[in-house]
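By way of example, what follows is a protein record of this kind.
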Amino acid sequence: MAPRISNGGYMSLKMTTVYPTLFAASVPICGVVASFPPGGAALIPGSDLVRITTPTWRVTSRDDTTVDPQANTAHAHDVIPGSLMMLYDHVVWNGHQFNGHWSWIYVAHNDPSISGTHIWQWMAAQQRH
């Protein structure tokens, strides 16, 4: 079985560009592709993102003030072929609202789902050929 990447940030996507056939799935949480801090060269340019073939499901919250969700998660989703994305409005769990950068809470609780498939089941179903 191929390894899966479930950590967030920059490293998940960078690893899929450096090792394009190693991972079965990638789940960048609050992933960073734009310059950080803003104003410099992109950490992962669009020319690298468009070549990602690893199935990728991106998770973030619109109110993340640490990593701009539009410049990072939404942008990467638009560029990575076949990318999936969950863009929450806020991070709320058990009635408590958390900092917007805490989107990992949703992934840890297997909350993101698309068409009835939750993120952990999606990850388990991915295979590298």
In short: Strands lie at 4-5, 25-26, 57-61, 84-88, 91-93, 96-98, 113-114, 117-118. The longest strand covers residues 57-61.
